[in-house]
Sequence to fold (155 residues):
Amino acid sequence: MKKEKQYWLMKTEPMSYSIDDLKRDRKTAWSGVRNYQARNFMRDDMQVGDGVLFYHSSCKEPGVYGLARVNSKSYPDPTQFEKGGMYYEPRATKEKPMWFLVDVAFEKKFKEGVSIRALREHKDLRGLRMLELGSRLSITPVTQKEFETVALLAV
Fold:
């Protein structure tokens, strides 16, 4: 049974992979995630068509810079098998992988990002999990209302 469409905030450092990179590439494998909760979101909860707020972190002006969508079912992250690679996982095997990913496809780049300051100040976004003190997850669920509110703030 197919679940209702869900919405996500996915963080990336723009020096590693930005909304401009996604716009150019049209889609990408969301590889290298090494947090169990974020992995579980991709492996167990994300489905094709889910909405994504594309968030830039560790930059001059952190914030949401565009929209994307989940473009594949989850599958094993191939970087876990690359010996000597940054994301190599020696305990993982092809038969029993540890890390999973989804493909993410470009939807829209905002003319201006919606800054973390603007996210914090908007009353309808006070429940965003990524704004919680100590939250460091690279992937967090958002509600449909939160997703739509951020998209409207970017207009």
Observations:
- The two ends are 35 Å apart (CA to CA).
